[in-house]
Amino acid sequence: MFHDRCWHGAQSPRRLRRPRLECTLAPSTSAVDNRSFVQPATPLPGTQDLLFEAASRLRRCEATLCGRFEEKGYAEVIPPAIEAADVFGPEAFRALDRSGRLIALRADFTAQVARIAATRLAGISPLRLYYRGSIVRRVAPDSGPVHERLQAGCELVGAAGPEADAEILALAAASLHALGIRGRISVGSTGYFSALATAAGASERLAAALNDAVDRKDLPTLRTLCEREVAAGKARDAILLLAQPPRPQTEARELLARAETLAPSEDALRALRRVSAALAAARSLGAELEVDLGEVRGLGYYTGIVFNLYATGSPRPVGGGGRYDTLLGRFGDPRPAVGFSLDLDALVPLAC
Question: Strand locations in 237-336, DSSP E?
């Protein structure tokens, strides 16, 4: 607190006026030196600020989804934003901490939930867990810029049957309904493609090229690859079938029957029958389900059925998931699991 205790000349206290205090603050040297570091800036490419109504809308959608997940018996887990780098794949953004340990920003919730289930909740089955938050991934593995995405999702751990696959498919569909979004679920199998590639004797390079052509539904390129590098026979014919357009569940039986006649191995046949069993268990979803044997996208840990979620009004998938029966084994507790994640950046603008 500032006190003026100064008296001037012979003026009496009654006539004394408080002197006017004028103070001008000069910028400090450090402030001047740091001006170049505090200029207004937009968020980094691949990230965003959510303000006011956009933030409120996200929270409302999250609350709706959390309510639906909890109605179905799923409990929330909140993993850390930073993990040991080996939890994630090459898409993670990595750095060295001060002790020299390689760490990574969260690139995938499923891997974190698998770690939690295998370590903190080992041996407890079934586990129904859900999450929400952001992930940070590189646009291309081991190179390029990073981007941040907002997600929510569910994982069912310790359940191996087609009923578990159907439960996850139904919950994914119910999540879209809860947000007032019409959509469809396209179901395939990574196990089927892997079995075909193995039966065809495909090298790692050829398998990647086939995968890319199938993913793009590029039949001319797929045919060229097969004619040039895959011997004639069931494996080649079955691979060419993967470029067929998706079929509604009501028409899937014919497609699956044809694929079974072309199955070149027991592994391929087993993968097809698992898709059929999941569809049968989830038949209540009706027209919302379709079969796409060329649905081969997804992270490298998927071992069985995989699926993508599509919504009216979105040009790209708004979610996806699948079965990953070997992922928990990486953390010392081998158990089957299946789950899905929703892309909230894509869904929130579409939600009612």
Answer: 247-248, 289-291, 305-311, 319-323
